[in-house]
Fold:
Amino acid sequence: MVASIATSLLGPAEVTFTANLGNKSGHMRSTLSVRPASPYASFITSGYSKEAKQSLTLDRVLYPEYRVVEAAVSSSPLILVTGLQHYLDAYPYGCTEQLVSKAFPLLAMANQPWFATDSQSINDKVKQTIQLISQRQVSSGGFNYWPEGGTEYANTFASVYAMHFLTEAKAQGHLVPNDIFSSGIGFLRELAAQDITTLNEARLQAYAIYILTRNEIVTTNYLAHLQDALNKDPKAQWRQDITSAYIASVYQLLKNSTEAEKLITYYTPQTKKTIEDSDFYNQSIGDAEYLYLTARHFPNRLQSINMDLVMSLVNALNNDTLSTLLSSYTSLALAAYNQFYSLPNEATLVVSETRNDKENTLSSANGGLYQKAVIDTSASAVTITNASKQGYFYQLTQAGFDKTFPTKPIQTGIEVYREFINADNATVDTVSLGKEITVRIRARALDNQYHENTALVDLLPGGFEVVNDSVQLQSMDYVDVREDRVIYFGTIGPEARELTYRIKATNIGNFTVPPMYGMSMYNPMVKSSGKAATIIVN
Structure:
């Protein structure tokens, strides 16, 4: 006989197995996870206001378990980093870029007492990140993008980005293994000496030379080699690219201030159009890098930087434009900028929530202080009252599991579709206990583009388990098999792509089939989601 505790609460549920024989019985207890048929998601709304009253609508209906809904306000833009850190911590994937991006804000905000009080926890997270990315280093000294990427393959951007993180961590006293760091420096040297043919290659080479110079390596020859190649470009597009700001920063580190001051003027922020966009570079990411480099190496120029640059970054920290990489670079930029940022006349801010048509005050303090208010599950809106009408930054974080599903498919840039088929290649919605069926996923781009680094997430219905040996890469870059889902990562283009694997029915019942969804990890506007369905196991 099997007895269990039925529960609608998310989290661990205890199952008790009881065996009886005559007047004797035995018991065994185990736990299993209870999750809804929806993924955990974090939405962030960031902004700046001088209005006397600002209202923010709570537009997600979330399960109370694992729900995080918070409002933060301050006269300082640094308050935005706390929401970004939660967004990064909750991000569900684990490529090398995302591992580094989750840890970078911890280094950027290390000296801010209000950011985190548990320094040991921060140290442990940084240490863990160093260990994880060290395991992905290959013989060239670079780093794989995913845990299994071959012994010789390294992702160029992820490798330079990882070495940037290790450089910052080492400078703050964190232990970085000498062999890992030395090998990574060797990779950067090789990259810095290569001939470049594209602007993207030039940008990465300038980034690598910058990290080498930060490590007190004389990079004059590398720099001359890069500039010689760039000066052959008749359009000189690199001057409007963040490439010029990295080269300027290298000259500043090499104590050639004349050349540095000339080059730092080339990059123009807020143009809203980059010459060569990629998953790892766009205008907002470039602006964040520019603010970081300027605050770190050209602080005298900060007074001439229009506050609109900071505002453009704040506006980019919202659901339709936010990415892990932008979150990380913005954290670095705001931390460096804040050292020279003069607070305006501090606002007196009151944060309240609307509950049952009544406003309840949650916090009230001088705006120069960091304020964070936890929002009740029954609240429908958050209101920030600013009697002094002084400028302040605000952020609303809504994270958790949604109770509702999309009522119709979402298809923006890509479409994904999933069906269950039996041995006769027929679509089924009823399965016998113990039987295996095939999951068939189809995906394609709708805009005639190729979307790299796309995640296709298939949450399993309850009552099923993955047949592990049936899951193969099938021309994708990486596949992550978990207890309750299978996630494929790779490029989705105009041609239809089909992926298959098998699942096995392990429990009797009627089960909700979660919507299949896909998303570009670096362009939130490229996404697709299906509708929930039902499958029966008898």
